[in-house]
Model the fold of this input.
Amino acid sequence: MKEVIIATKNAGKLVEFQSILSAYDLKAISLLDLEESPDVEETGSTFEENAILKAEAISKMYGKMAIADDSGLSVDFLGGEPGIYSARYAGVDKNDAANIEKVLHKLNGITKEERNARFRCALALAEPGRETITVEGSVEGYITDEPIGENGFGYDPIFLVKDKAKTMAQLTKEEKNKISHRAVALQKLAKLLQA
Done:
């Protein structure tokens, strides 16, 4: 099995990557599995730029294939916010509950029709001596009035999936791995890996 470094310290993300990449004979490890792994600064202005920065830095440092994602929630009524700032929307510390609270506060009194949103994910695959590959995935939905569901992480409890009548946090891991923004992007990447 070929080893690929997933440029994340988020255990929830790693599980999603592992369950999808294992079908392609790739063993996914994260930065948590490596000693002295750096925090790559996300200075890009788009999800794609940030994914490339992370993947290339990690690939160069360890001399291995690396996959990085940058993903987040984009709410139309908020002009695309929280966007690339999704993880730290409510402040410097990554705090899911505070981030959710901030989105709900900003949408207080706004009708469902105006709560259109999407989860977006850009993936970058970097390997020494090869050109970096990028793919994107997204899933459409709406922001709920309150958190619903116990699964997932991040904004999953307030993201009602358009065609499911369930929030991302109400989906099983298997259901989420078929339709999530990360799953869509990973499936595109997997096809490129097969080629």
User: Anything to note?
Assistant: The mean pLDDT is 91. Residues 38 and 58 are 8 Å apart (CA to CA). The helical segments are 11-21, 47-62, 96-106, 173-179, 181-194. The two ends are 17 Å apart (CA to CA).
